[in-house]
Design brief:
Subcellular location: Cell membrane
GO biological process, one term: transmembrane transport
Transmembrane segments: 24-47, 68-97, 117-138, 150-171, 229-251, 257-276
Keywords: Cell membrane, Membrane, Transmembrane, Transmembrane helix, Transport
Strand content: under 5%
CATH superfamily of the domain at 73-239: MetI-like
CATH class of the domain at 73-239: Mainly Alpha
Mean pLDDT: 79
CATH architecture of the domain at 73-239: Orthogonal Bundle
Largest sheet: none
Structural class: mainly alpha
Distance between the termini: 73 Å
Number of strands: 0
Radius of gyration: 29 Å
Organism: Mycolicibacterium iranicum
Low-confidence stretches: 289-298
CATH topology of the domain at 73-239: MetI-like fold
Length: 298
């Protein structure tokens, strides 16, 4: 009787309604449209403007463009080398040579990152200009009427200002890399009789190569496209590619010529960025970063 009263189990029929389609991809559209509108569209317009008849041949064949290209690369490379030397020295001192006030010095270096570049040039004018404080003090001591320091309005003044402004971009990555070196590794090297210079050369600097390459590549890209320091310095005859773009586009209203130079500037920056990615990938692979739990940013 009990068996007769029990209701047989029945399996529900399979659902014929399809699962709702995910619309999460719609969230990609706003940032994608923003990138296309803000980044890609201006670049396409610049390239189209540079396609005017005879613009490329006229600009690339001019002596002014070749001089500006050479001067831009020379100033950027020299400034980057100076930033690497000065930044490495400052990072080593701040990380491994404790002294009173080191934290304050580190904060002051970080403060430079928050300042616009033309303020550094303005400060240099007040200090090293023809009527600056240092020349005034030297004239008061020596009695000379002509300024003793007259480098500010030359390529050397531009390079000095760029080194002062962009060195923190090297110091910060190096300090982060130095903080990851185990103290036990340094103690073992010192206990084996290695001198401080040997420890620096064999232990510290090899660990800092990726950070040094990253900081140096960033500084090279920034100095290659720097405009404010060169313009506010007012150095005579120091015409770089950004200044030449400004001159031809704003002063003489030669928009096709300015677009050609801007296209060359963009291609040069992209080539340097690609070279940086290749070098960084080889350095991290050689040091075994590819086996790390967290992959490096791409």
């Amino acid at each position: 009787m009990t068996g007769l009263l029990e209701r047989p189990e029945t399996t529900p029929p399979p659902s014929t309604t399809a699962a709702p389609r995910s619309r999460a991809w719609l969230w990609v559209l706003p940032p994608l449209l923003l990138v296309l509108l803000v980044v890609l569209y201006p670049l396409v317009r610049v390239f189209m403007e540079s396609s005017a008849d005879g613009s490329w041949g006229e600009v690339l064949g001019s002596e002014m463009f070749r001089d500006a290209l050479w001067r831009t690369v020379a100033i950027a490379a020299t400034s980057t080398l100076g930033c690497l030397i000065l930044g490495t020295f400052l990072a080593i001192v701040l990380a491994f040579v404790p002294f009173p006030g080191s934290a304050v010095v580190g904060r002051l270096i970080d403060t430079v990152l928050a300042l616009p570049s033309f303020l550094i040039t303005l400060a240099f004018t007040f200090l090293y200009g023809s009527a600056g404080a240092i020349n005034a003090a030297i004239s008061a001591i020596t009695g000379s009427s002509s300024p003793m320091l007259d480098f500010l309005y030359t390529p050397a003044g531009v390079i000095t200002a760029e080194i002062t402004f962009f060195t923190p971009f090297v110091v910060r990555p190096l300090l982060a890399a130095f903080s990851l070196i185990p103290q036990s590794q340094l103690n073992v090297a010192a206990s084996l009789g290695a001198s401080p210079w040997r420890v620096l050369r064999a232990v510290i600097l090899p660990e800092a190569w990726p950070a040094l390459a990253a900081g140096g590549s960033l500084v090279l890209l920034l100095t290659l496209n720097e405009f404010g320091i060169v313009l506010f310095t007012g150095a005579k005859g120091v015409i770089t590619l950004p200044v030449l773009i400004y001159t031809r586009g704003i002063v003489t209203f030669d928009l096709p010529g300015a677009a050609v130079i801007a296209t060359v500037q963009v291609l040069l920056s992209l080539a340097l960025y690609g070279l940086y990615r290749v070098v960084f990938a080889r350095l991290t692979t050689r040091r075994g970063v590819g086996d790390a739990a967290v992959e490096p940013p791409k």
